[in-house]
Amino acid sequence: MRGIVIDADTHLFETHALWAEHLPKARRDLAVHIEEDALGYAWLTAPDGTHIHLAEVHTPGDIMTMGERRLRQRSGLPPVVPFKELEAHDHDPAARVELMDRQGVDQALVFPNFGLFWVRTLEDHLDAQLANMEAWNRWASEGIRPAGGGRLHPVGHVSLRDPAWLDAQLASLSSAGVSAAMVPIGPVDGRPFSHPELDACWSSFENHGVAVIFHISDGPRPFDDAWYEGDDNPIEPLLMSTFISVSPMLALTDLAVGGVLARHPDLRIGLVEFTSSWFGQFLSSVDACYTFHAGYNGLPLERLDLRPSEYLRRHVRLATFGFEHPAQLASAVGDLYMFGSDYPHAEGLARPLEDFQASGGPAPSAQTAGLYRDNAAWVLGRAGT
């Protein structure tokens, strides 16, 4: 089969002043930016000048080289590859499409790169948080989407902290043909996703036909801050990887048991880069715990029309890795999984299709159309693509 292949997890790097360039002049002081230090290393930098994270050039599929480059920076040596020498296909949407032709990938969801790093840093500065999300959304709508020629599907970046702002952003994204938006995965100013005050937010996603995407990032954290102290990388700590499934488990449980998915039957949800092999056991566990909790506390099971797992199967699709053997997962759990390369990250795949299959993924075929096409198309609201 040589059908359409959709990569559910790719990234384009934001350039030095992309955020300011896509904000009105009066709000450009709120923009994050990239600046070089005396040694020539580029840093993602907060509006107040705080360095958030190195702005690095990645070699796809090569985490050891990334480690060597970070060690070099800590040793006070200049960069081997300065950020300004970033390959065109890592930041330019037209060049990315040309690369996809060589990779054998037809379409791709496109996430921000540095947008994964600054949300928690700006948590106490809502105006800056929302402004930088707006900047990415404008670039997604006016830059990535047109240059991609229908093959790049940029994912917007939004917050639930201001429902009116959210509705306006989703309306703008939808009108530009952007049908998915990334949301920080965690409590919203102390409120769970199922809080009644946030119901209007989920209605906005439904009304504008935009899917909710949860992607691993440095957003709200599931554990006390003390557990993360002393990590050599405070933005990407070891606990983020060790407990990668905890945040989506918390969020999905709340969305299902809290009634959000029952009240919003048209909501589409994608999980990206959280791994996926845990999902089958989680579905069994959430049903068992829901039943136990109801019986133990004298609560009616009928407060939900469906079992929590049934809502999750209806509403959720997950990006998977080849080493998780997605064909076996689909056989055991259902056709809920999406091919994703995480290109061009060091922890991603240098040759998306070849490396995905070499690590344990099946080849594209009529039997794997869900993995390589249909489930990502469903998330995008383009079932039947």
Compact overview of the structure:
The chain is α/β, with parallel strands linked by helices.
Describe, in plain words, how this protein is organized in 3D.
The chain is α/β, with parallel strands linked by helices. Helices cover 39% and strands 13% of the residues. The protein contains 15 helices and twelve strands. It has helices spanning 18-21, 63-74, 88-91, 93-103, 126-147, 163-175, 199-208, 238-242, 246-257, 260-263, 279-297, 308-315, 326-333, 352-358, 369-379, and strands at 6-12, 33-36, 42-45, 51-54, 107-112, 152-154, 156-157, 180-182, 211-215, 269-272, 316-320, 337-339. Strands 7-8-9-10-11-12 form a six-stranded parallel β-sheet. The protein has a three-stranded parallel β-sheet with strand order 1-5-6.
Secondary-structure map with pairings?
Elements: E1 6-12, H1 18-21, E2 33-36, E3 42-45, E4 51-54, H2 63-74, H3 88-91, H4 93-103, E5 107-112, H5 126-147, E6 152-154, E7 156-157, H6 163-175, E8 180-182, H7 199-208, E9 211-215, H8 238-242, H9 246-257, H10 260-263, E10 269-272, H11 279-297, H12 308-315, E11 316-320, H13 326-333, E12 337-339, H14 352-358, H15 369-379
Helix pairs in contact: 5-6, 6-7, 9-12
Key attributes of the depicted protein:
385 residues; 3-stranded parallel β-sheet; 15 helices; globular
Largest sheet, spatial ordering of strands:
7-8-9-10-11-12
Order of helices and strands: EHEEEHHHEHEEHEHEHHHEHHEHEHH
Biggest pleated-sheet summary: 6 strands, parallel
- Indicate the structural class: alpha/beta
The count of β-strands is 12
Distance between the termini: 15 Å
- Mean pLDDT reading: 96
Determine the number of helices (DSSP H or I, runs of at least 4 residues).
15
